[in-house]
Design brief:
Elements: H1 3-28, E1 65-76, E2 90-101, E3 104-111, E4 116-126, E5 137-147, E6 161-172, E7 177-188, E8 198-211, E9 214-221, E10 233-242, E11 245-252, H2 259-264, E12 276-286, H3 291-295
Antiparallel strand pairs: 1-2, 1-12, 2-3, 3-4, 4-5, 5-6, 6-7, 7-8, 8-9, 9-10, 10-11, 11-12
Length: 298
């Protein structure tokens, strides 16, 4: 199967599930809870964490809560038996997210991939409501990354920077199915001569509930402008909730785990077996009692 065929089948699959769940959305939203709910209640738990796999989801870390995150990604599966099919080479990002106030979250982390430091702000503009007065959730993400690796030529601090901005628009169609679209702009201050500094992409992420504690997550991020020597990101995985932890197990062709990197700087391909197995671990800690924010009318 070639890459073009794989992409086509991925898009068709997403579209099919989208249409099926849209037809049942109005009735299914009433099943989110067994208790009577106000019709204007906000729709919660579209995804299990603030991440789909690589993409940011429709969720935010709660106000006063710190979410400690570990992202671990092994080497390419096709690296051979000598490297234990990727197990000997790993990329790790350690970081966290903190809910500053309701609807505003900040995040930061450090990755071993290109020795990258990254930070971001995520703001919820609109929250989906059960009475469909607000049919979708809309969030804005802005992020910056700084590559600390040694280059073979002189590089200034400004040239090490990369930026990404995403408008995240999504909907929980039923208790089981959520879908988001994320129009994205990525800007690298330093790029290969074959690649433009600024690129445009559309992130597509979906979540299908399999059981009370597990979900299937899929991502596809086609770059809509010139990609140069890089490839579109495709990822698939499972979320498993175990008490205060959420484990995300996935396969992806993205080595980088910051927005600018995984959107537009992927060197691996699925049809070439340049796929990596990885996992994300999320653990939340309450720093400030959430009731303090309610009392302050946030």
């Amino acid at each position: 199967m070639n890459l073009r065929s794989l992409y086509s089948k991925t898009v068709v699959c997403i579209a099919t599930v989208f249409v099926f769940n849209t037809a049942a959305a109005q009735d299914s939203l009433d099943l989110i809870s067994n208790e009577p709910e106000p019709t204007n209640q906000k729709v919660e738990y579209s995804f299990k964490t603030s991440k789909v796999i690589n993409l940011q989801s429709l969720e935010l870390t709660g106000a006063g809560v710190f979410d400690f995150k570990i992202n671990h990604r092994f080497g390419p599966i096709n690296s051979g038996a000598y490297n234990a099919f990727g197990l000997d080479g790993a990329i790790t990002r350690i970081g966290g997210e903190y809910g500053v106030i309701p609807d505003v979250m900040v995040g930061f982390g450090r990755s071993s991939y290109e020795k990258t430091l990254d930070a971001y702000v995520k703001y919820r503009i609109m929250h989906q409501r059960m009475d469909n007065s607000r049919p979708v959730s809309i969030l804005l993400l802005t992020s910056v990354a700084r590559r600390g690796m040694n280059f073979s030529f002189d590089v200034t601090g400004r040239q090490r920077l990369a930026f990404a901005t995403q408008l995240i628009i999504g909907r929980k169609f039923s208790e089981s199915f959520s879908l988001l679209l994320a129009p994205s702009i990525v800007h690298y201050n330093l790029t290969p001569s074959t690649t433009p500094n600024r690129q445009y992409a559309l992130g597509i992420g979906l979540r299908q509930k399999l059981s009370k504690r597990t979900t299937l997550n899929l991502e596809y991020i086609p770059v809509l402008s010139e990609k140069g020597e890089f490839y579109n990101s495709i990822s698939a995985g499972f979320d498993i909730e175990t008490g205060g932890h959420v484990f995300q197990l996935h396969f992806t062709n993205s080595a980088a785990n910051n927005e600018a990197g995984f959107i537009a700087r992927n060197t691996g391909t699925w049809n070439g077996a340049g796929v990596r197995f990885g996992f994300n671990i999320s653990r939340v800690f309450t720093i400030i009692d959430p009731s303090n924010f309610k009392n302050n009318n946030y």
